[in-house]
Amino acid sequence: MSTTYHQLVDMLARLHGAPADRISPEATFAELDVDSLTMVEISIRIERDLGVAIGDDELRSDLTLGDLAGLVDARQGAL
Predict the structure, then answer these.
(1) Nearest 5°: CA angle at 32, between 26 and 37?
(2) Most buried residue, 39, 55, 57, 73, by CB count within 10 Å?
(3) pLDDT computed for residue 22 by the predictor
(4) CB pairs under 8 A, 24+ apart, for 70-77?
(5) Are the C-beta atoms of 53 and 47 separated by less than 8 Å?
(6) DSSP three-state, residue 42
């Protein structure tokens, strides 16, 4: 997996306390019981730490961590 994916896992573990054994590229935010407030915080951290803006309409509960990492990587490559 990409460096971005691992950064997102660290971010999610710190913000949400998600157990490492439940975090995988195929895991959705819904499966990890991430609430809307945490989703907003993740979006803010992605923009601050990774330099990529992710819209509220893009960061959905059915999005997988792998898909989010791919989206961030694609946007970083476009910069």
Answers:
(1) 120
(2) 39
(3) 78
(4) 72/4, 72/8, 72/46, 73/2, 73/4, 76/4, 76/50, 76/51, 76/52
(5) yes
(6) helix
